[in-house]
Write a structure and sequence with these properties.
This protein has a domain of 154 residues: 3-Layer(aba) Sandwich (Rossmann fold). Helices cover 32% and strands 20% of the residues. The protein contains 10 helices and 11 strands. The strands form 3 sheets. It has a 6-stranded parallel beta sheet with strand order 5-4-1-9-10-11, sandwiched between helices. Strands 7-6-8 form a 3-stranded antiparallel beta sheet, covered by helices on one side. Strands 2-3 form a two-stranded antiparallel ribbon. Bound molecules: zinc ion. Zinc ion binds next to loops.
């Protein structure tokens, strides 16, 4: 079915897509939103949890002041995510990983939906809501949906916290460097469902451009990146991505 609003894919992008060898994909909240994941950033009531603004309850300071409250918030969010399924964008990106000789998926999302869609070796810039991290020894443990999450570290007994990057925190050591190395080595770069405003993730398409990669953005709205990239496809990722490989 041909929709009136369907963006047209340039011949150049088709040619690049079929000849690319090293592909980098950066995804953001827009990809998750198509699965129904709330972003909690849009303002309104959804941006407040028990009277606390999203950036207060999700902050490094709150982990120190009131870890149980932070857990209550993250347990609630995990409960919402539990039922959600990958959407056609996740599935398409997952199908791309075996198509190119090198493929790197970098995400700003913490919901694990790329992995649910069978993407492998996902670089999670902001961590995962499906992992805990010990505040003492920094060991990480997966949260299995079939069991209650760990309350304390099985290694040392210290409290555990969500293994996600909170407001006021740095990215985990080495994670951005790994993504930047892939960006510096790619010949085709997709920026999908993110306004690419948040640094350092926003610098990945810049790095790709500098090394001469073709940079394509897929987003429902124009972003600050739109005029800088080689192709900007406006639309929902779940609808646009399948058109590229078709
Ligand atoms: Zn520990």
């Amino acid at each position: 079915m041909q929709l009136a609003s369907e963006p047209s894919i340039s011949d150049e992008l088709r040619r690049r897509f079929s000849s690319a060898r090293r592909v980098l994909v950066l995804t953001g909240a827009g990809v998750s939103a198509e699965s129904g994941v709330p972003t909690f950033r849009g303002g309104g009531n959804s941006a407040v949890w028990k009277g606390m603004p999203f950036d207060v309850i999700s902050s490094a300071r709150m982990v120190e002041r009131d870890l149980p409250a932070v857990w209550e918030w993250f347990d609630y969010r995990r409960g919402l995510l539990q039922e959600l399924k990958p959407n056609p964008a996740h599935n398409e990106i997952s199908a791309w990983q075996d198509r190119f000789s090198e493929f790197t998926l970098v995400t700003q999302n913490i919901d694990g939906l790329h992995q649910k869609a069978r993407s492998r070796d996902v670089i999670e810039l902001h961590g995962s809501i499906w992992r805990v991290r010990c505040v003492g020894c920094h060991s990480r443990f997966e949260i299995l949906s079939t069991q209650p999450r760990a309350e304390a570290c099985p290694d040392c007994g210290d409290p555990v916290r969500p293994d996600v990057v909170l407001f006021g925190e740095m990215l985990p050591a080495g994670v951005f460097e790994q993504a930047a190395a892939a960006a510096a080595n790619c010949d085709l770069c997709f920026v999908i469902g993110t306004s690419a405003l948040v640094y350092p993730a926003a610098s990945l398409p810049d790095i790709a451009r500098v090394v001469g990669a073709f940079v394509c953005e897929v987003n429902p709205e124009k972003t600050p990146l739109s005029d800088l990239c080689d192709e900007s496809l406006m639309g929902r990722a779940g609808e646009v991505l399948p058109l590229i490989s078709r």
